[in-house]
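G., the chain you wanted modeled:
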Amino acid sequence: MSTSILPTERIAQKILLLRNEKVILDIHLAELFEIETRVLKQAVRRNIDRFPDDFMFILNDNEIDYMVSQNVIPSKQVLGGAMPFAFTETGVAMLSSVLKSKKAIDINIAIMRTFVMLRRVFEDNRELFNRLENVDKKLMEYDENIMLIFEYIKQFEAIKQQELEQKNRPRIGYKISTEQKED
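Predicted structure as C-alpha coordinates:
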Protein backbone atom coordinates (compact mmCIF):
# COMPACT_ATOMS: atom_id res chain seq x y z
CA MET A 1 0.00 0.00 0.00
CA SER A 2 1.44 3.37 -0.91
CA THR A 3 1.38 6.32 1.39
CA SER A 4 -0.80 8.13 -1.17
CA ILE A 5 -3.67 5.79 -0.19
CA LEU A 6 -2.91 6.30 3.50
CA PRO A 7 -1.27 9.72 3.81
CA THR A 8 1.26 10.38 6.52
CA GLU A 9 -0.74 13.41 7.70
CA ARG A 10 -3.79 11.23 8.32
CA ILE A 11 -1.72 8.84 10.43
CA ALA A 12 0.12 11.66 12.23
CA GLN A 13 -3.22 13.16 13.31
CA LYS A 14 -4.00 9.91 15.12
CA ILE A 15 -0.78 9.90 17.15
CA LEU A 16 -1.35 11.29 20.64
CA LEU A 17 0.82 11.97 23.66
CA LEU A 18 -0.32 10.00 26.72
CA ARG A 19 1.77 9.18 29.79
CA ASN A 20 4.72 10.85 28.02
CA GLU A 21 4.48 8.30 25.19
CA LYS A 22 3.44 8.76 21.59
CA VAL A 23 0.53 6.37 21.12
CA ILE A 24 -2.29 5.47 18.77
CA LEU A 25 -5.61 4.39 20.26
CA ASP A 26 -7.25 1.12 19.24
CA ILE A 27 -10.23 2.96 17.76
CA HIS A 28 -7.92 4.86 15.40
CA LEU A 29 -5.85 1.80 14.50
CA ALA A 30 -9.03 -0.11 13.67
CA GLU A 31 -10.10 2.78 11.46
CA LEU A 32 -6.73 2.77 9.67
CA PHE A 33 -6.77 -1.03 9.28
CA GLU A 34 -10.43 -0.82 8.20
CA ILE A 35 -11.53 -3.40 10.76
CA GLU A 36 -13.84 -3.23 13.75
CA THR A 37 -12.27 -2.15 17.03
CA ARG A 38 -13.56 -5.30 18.73
CA VAL A 39 -11.74 -7.46 16.14
CA LEU A 40 -8.48 -5.62 16.84
CA LYS A 41 -8.93 -5.96 20.60
CA GLN A 42 -9.82 -9.62 20.25
CA ALA A 43 -6.62 -10.31 18.30
CA VAL A 44 -4.58 -8.45 20.93
CA ARG A 45 -6.24 -10.28 23.82
CA ARG A 46 -5.51 -13.62 22.17
CA ASN A 47 -1.84 -12.61 22.05
CA ILE A 48 -1.67 -10.50 25.21
CA ASP A 49 1.75 -11.89 26.15
CA ARG A 50 3.16 -10.02 23.12
CA PHE A 51 1.98 -6.68 24.51
CA PRO A 52 3.72 -5.73 27.78
CA ASP A 53 2.96 -2.38 29.41
CA ASP A 54 5.57 -0.53 27.37
CA PHE A 55 3.92 -1.77 24.13
CA MET A 56 0.29 -1.20 25.07
CA PHE A 57 -1.70 0.08 28.03
CA ILE A 58 -5.36 0.54 28.87
CA LEU A 59 -6.58 4.09 29.40
CA ASN A 60 -7.88 4.95 32.87
CA ASP A 61 -11.09 6.91 33.54
CA ASN A 62 -9.31 10.28 33.81
CA GLU A 63 -7.54 9.75 30.49
CA ILE A 64 -10.81 8.71 28.84
CA ASP A 65 -12.59 11.79 30.21
CA TYR A 66 -9.77 13.98 28.88
CA MET A 67 -9.86 12.31 25.45
CA VAL A 68 -13.65 12.70 25.25
CA SER A 69 -13.42 16.37 26.29
CA GLN A 70 -10.86 17.01 23.54
CA ASN A 71 -13.07 15.25 20.95
CA VAL A 72 -10.35 12.66 20.35
CA ILE A 73 -12.67 9.75 21.06
CA PRO A 74 -16.46 9.43 21.23
CA SER A 75 -18.31 9.46 24.52
CA LYS A 76 -18.08 6.60 26.99
CA GLN A 77 -21.54 5.41 25.94
CA VAL A 78 -20.31 4.88 22.36
CA LEU A 79 -17.36 2.90 23.71
CA GLY A 80 -19.85 0.57 25.37
CA GLY A 81 -17.94 0.48 28.63
CA ALA A 82 -14.81 -0.92 26.96
CA MET A 83 -11.62 0.82 27.96
CA PRO A 84 -9.54 1.90 24.94
CA PHE A 85 -6.10 0.41 24.34
CA ALA A 86 -3.21 2.78 23.62
CA PHE A 87 -0.40 1.32 21.50
CA THR A 88 3.13 2.73 21.61
CA GLU A 89 5.39 2.63 18.57
CA THR A 90 6.71 -0.78 19.58
CA GLY A 91 3.17 -1.98 20.24
CA VAL A 92 2.15 -0.97 16.72
CA ALA A 93 5.16 -2.87 15.39
CA MET A 94 4.06 -5.92 17.37
CA LEU A 95 0.60 -5.71 15.79
CA SER A 96 2.13 -6.86 12.51
CA SER A 97 2.71 -10.26 14.10
CA VAL A 98 -0.91 -10.41 15.23
CA LEU A 99 -2.69 -8.96 12.18
CA LYS A 100 -1.26 -10.93 9.29
CA SER A 101 -3.18 -9.78 6.22
CA LYS A 102 -1.27 -8.06 3.42
CA LYS A 103 -3.32 -4.90 3.92
CA ALA A 104 -2.59 -4.85 7.67
CA ILE A 105 1.14 -5.26 7.01
CA ASP A 106 1.16 -2.40 4.45
CA ILE A 107 -0.76 -0.10 6.77
CA ASN A 108 1.51 -1.07 9.67
CA ILE A 109 4.57 -0.13 7.59
CA ALA A 110 3.00 3.27 6.82
CA ILE A 111 2.28 3.82 10.53
CA MET A 112 5.84 2.89 11.51
CA ARG A 113 7.24 5.29 8.89
CA THR A 114 5.06 8.04 10.33
CA PHE A 115 6.36 7.37 13.86
CA VAL A 116 9.93 7.53 12.55
CA MET A 117 9.20 10.74 10.63
CA LEU A 118 7.71 12.39 13.73
CA ARG A 119 10.72 11.34 15.81
CA ARG A 120 13.06 12.87 13.22
CA VAL A 121 11.05 16.10 13.09
CA PHE A 122 11.19 16.35 16.86
CA GLU A 123 14.93 15.61 17.00
CA ASP A 124 15.67 18.06 14.18
CA ASN A 125 13.72 20.76 15.97
CA ARG A 126 14.68 19.90 19.55
CA GLU A 127 16.64 23.15 19.97
CA LEU A 128 13.67 25.12 18.68
CA PHE A 129 11.33 23.28 21.07
CA ASN A 130 13.70 24.00 23.97
CA ARG A 131 13.86 27.68 23.04
CA LEU A 132 10.09 27.87 22.83
CA GLU A 133 9.82 26.20 26.21
CA ASN A 134 12.26 28.75 27.69
CA VAL A 135 10.33 31.63 26.11
CA ASP A 136 7.13 30.21 27.55
CA LYS A 137 8.69 30.02 31.03
CA LYS A 138 9.92 33.62 30.77
CA LEU A 139 6.49 34.77 29.64
CA MET A 140 4.98 33.07 32.67
CA GLU A 141 7.47 34.91 34.90
CA TYR A 142 6.64 38.20 33.18
CA ASP A 143 2.93 37.53 33.61
CA GLU A 144 3.47 36.92 37.32
CA ASN A 145 5.50 40.15 37.63
CA ILE A 146 2.88 42.15 35.73
CA MET A 147 0.14 40.76 37.97
CA LEU A 148 2.23 41.76 40.99
CA ILE A 149 2.63 45.30 39.61
CA PHE A 150 -1.14 45.55 39.09
CA GLU A 151 -1.68 44.39 42.66
CA TYR A 152 0.71 47.09 43.93
CA ILE A 153 -1.10 49.70 41.84
CA LYS A 154 -4.46 48.60 43.30
CA GLN A 155 -3.04 48.82 46.83
CA PHE A 156 -1.57 52.26 46.10
CA GLU A 157 -4.91 53.47 44.67
CA ALA A 158 -6.73 52.15 47.74
CA ILE A 159 -4.34 54.02 50.06
CA LYS A 160 -4.71 57.23 48.02
CA GLN A 161 -8.51 56.84 48.06
CA GLN A 162 -8.46 56.44 51.86
CA GLU A 163 -6.25 59.53 52.22
CA LEU A 164 -8.59 61.54 49.98
CA GLU A 165 -11.65 60.40 51.91
CA GLN A 166 -9.91 61.25 55.18
CA LYS A 167 -8.98 64.72 53.91
CA ASN A 168 -12.46 65.51 52.57
CA ARG A 169 -14.46 64.26 55.52
CA PRO A 170 -16.13 66.92 57.65
CA ARG A 171 -14.32 67.60 60.86
CA ILE A 172 -16.14 67.15 64.11
CA GLY A 173 -15.59 68.88 67.39
CA TYR A 174 -14.85 72.54 68.20
CA LYS A 175 -14.13 74.75 65.30
CA ILE A 176 -11.54 77.40 65.76
CA SER A 177 -11.85 80.29 63.46
CA THR A 178 -8.73 81.69 61.97
CA GLU A 179 -9.91 85.28 62.32
CA GLN A 180 -9.67 86.90 65.71
CA LYS A 181 -12.39 89.21 66.89
CA GLU A 182 -11.39 92.85 66.99
CA ASP A 183 -12.31 94.88 70.08
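Strands lie at 15-18, 21-25, 56-58, 85-88.

Shout if anything looks off.
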